[in-house]
Amino acid sequence: MYKITLSSDEIPKKWYNINADLPVPLPEYKDSEEGGNLANLPKIFSKGVLEQEMSQERWIDIPKEVRDVYKMIGRPSPLFRAKNLEDQLDTPAKIYYKREDYSPTGSHKLNTAIAQAYYAKKDGAERLTTETGAGQWGTALSLACSMLEMECKVYMVKVSFNQKPFRKTIMQLYGGNVIPSPSPDTAYGRKILAEDPDHPGSLGIAISEAVEEALQDDKVYYTLGSVLNHVLLHQTVIGLETKKQLEIADESPDVMIGCVGGGSNFGGAVFPFIKDQIDEKIDCKFIAAEPSSCPTLTQGEYCYDFADSGEMTPRMKMHTLGHSFVPPSVHAGGLRYHGMSPQVALLVKEGLIEGRTVTQDEVFQSGITFAKAEGVVPAPETCHAIKVAIDEAKACKKTGEEKTIVVSFSGHGMLDLQGYDDYLNGKLPKDSK
Length: 433
Ligand SMILES: *Cc1c(COP(=O)(O)O)cnc(C)c1O
Prior knowledge:
Helix 3 runs antiparallel to helix 5, helix 5 crosses helix 11 and helix 15 packs across helix 16. Strand 12 and strand 13 form a beta hairpin. It is built from 17 helices and 15 strands. 55% of the residues are buried. It is an alpha/beta fold. It is globular, with a radius of gyration of 20 Å. The chain folds into two domains: 165 residues, Rossmann fold (3-Layer(aba) Sandwich); 228 residues, Rossmann fold. The strands form four sheets. It has a seven-stranded mixed sheet, with helices on both faces. The chain has a four-stranded parallel sheet with strand order 8-7-6-9, sandwiched between helices. The model has no long low-confidence stretch (mean pLDDT 94). The structure holds pyridoxal-5'-phosphate. Pyridoxal-5'-phosphate binds next to helix 12 and helix 16.
């Protein structure tokens, strides 16, 4: 079977919460030494998602309204077998990829954007704010808000605003109000602009602006596209669907791979299988692929740190390169994050998940190999997972093992062609191994 689909009434009815099955309890979020960010959480997040953030319930109902929107955007997404890639690699391994690029915004991020918009609206919010760098998250939230009839305000890092005009266009097309950050709309933005009117902006500043707006208006909530437990919870629709699809194909995964920025597509894809691993129902290796220029899991320290550079969030225990770490500007913008989902981090610490780094050269090489064999152009982020899958499949060629490899295909790269163009024309800056 090369394409395994599920009908729309097979969308999972519950999300899976890994908190119920972690081998050791997740360390709690902490305030900073100076005090009180935890108290801000109920002002900036809806009750629904905050309850989920701390919940220990293994299964959490997906509201019917959310499932209906999942249907409208085409869930369940198909699972494909990369048969031609297998043939070209001449490997006995089987490679499957779960296609989150099927989402109208081109990545998995809509899965949580819809849920977050739903709970915020239920709580009486009229507008959602967020930050965006590369643009995928702002795009997903703009569409989710449009579908649920809410306003959306996206603080977009000013350099990206100027360098990625089409990302801005698609957010505006969905009705998102996109503001270059630092902006005159917030006290923090005005302060930065007073010091330097030409400030290029940063994700840290954009987060601070989006949070400030939510703190000051109780009709406004702030949303985050990755890292937090409730985000990974919403993304488990990916893994739950994959599980059914592998059963239909009569397969059990031997290797599961995803790229990690904050860990949401990877966590969403593998958590339902980690439970099977703990219960010894499967014997699977879980690999989180990250850029060598932002090696959070492989070189970061496992300790308490802020989720943002502006120090406005509580501190969480995770692998971190330090919240003031500024990664080089790689094309896989969605993976430039200093920290990691605390749940993914804990599972790495406990030895259930392995981190692996990929260089920028390897990213585009693998993306092109994949596109030439399968036709789909992967997002540069997704290429990290593909590179590791190709390595694993090549290892199977040596050993003769017929392993089943499953890749979380987080998104397509049709808005990332500049990176491919730079690679094809030898203009990619070299990064260190
Ligand atoms: C945002 C994004 C990522 C990284 O985010 P995670 O939370 O780690 O999943 C990966 N791939 C694509 C296509 C993205 O848009």
